[in-house]
Amino acid sequence: MPTIPFTRAARMIARGTWSFCIDRPLVVSFEVTHSCTCNCQHCDKGGMKPEPPGLLQAEDYRRLRSVLKPMVVQLSGGEPLLRKDIEEIVRAVKEPNGLPYTILVTNGRLLTEEKYLTLRRLGVNQFSISLDFPDERHDDFRRSPGLFKHLSELVPKLGRHGFGDAVLNTAITRGNLKTLRATYEKAKEWGVAISYSAYTPLRTGNMDHYISAPEDLELLRRTMDELVELKTQNGQIANSPWTLTGTHDFLKQGSISGCQAGRRFLVVTPEGGLRPCSMFDPTYASQKEIMEKFVATNTCGGCYVSIRAYLDASFWTLLKDNVKTRVLARNGRANQC
Question: Considering the entire predicted model, what is its pTM?
């Protein structure tokens, strides 16, 4: 994980504290497009789609950032690098003080070393690159021939720059359950961090990828225990120990209460509609409306994706975990020198 300068970290803490107090979202995910270069088996946003009327432009994102004042922004999709104006969008979501912390979520197909350097110079703080399998099975799962080869050539180059801002993201499914440790080893080989997130059938309705069999849950428990142990040794794994173990608990129980969607995080669609999360279609005109019509009656416990898993915690837990994670990451990089 990249080391955040002290002054910027202090501003993030101050903004996060105030946002907690007034129920303003800590994280906003701007889905800048619903088109994608992949057609993944576990996702509902695969393939290219016609550009919708009213597609938000860079100035719209500047306005929304000013209104919502998030501590963290995700630029996601679909595939955000399909936007030809992605550089202007990055400029628009960044304030002169370096906030918000900005994460680009990409499958990596359109990412190049040059584009990486340009976007981080404009203000992207973290590049979250999807990797479902540690080999060519990734291509089949993403329905994108040659994608793994591209990543295996690109990602080590990003790691060698030493910025610590490239993070692989693996969605845990029944199909890749046995490869989770190997994917960690691949991230280590490539010199980058890795984050894990639980697959949920909420968007696709497809139970084929969902982990529920007792033998699979036991394997997941052992694997999560291994990853927690590796987490304590270095900063290679971006997840908190409690989110790793919580992933097993969620899948074992089939649900987990306490969702903070709409309060701690929300989603902005490509046309500017607000959603409490990406799992459901209804859109709202404002966060106030989300709080009144969704949050007040929300009992959904059907996902434990990384953004929810992290933001369900208390502010002080998040703060403590951030400090610990960044110390581990710094020490891990020092040990590699």
Answer: 0.89
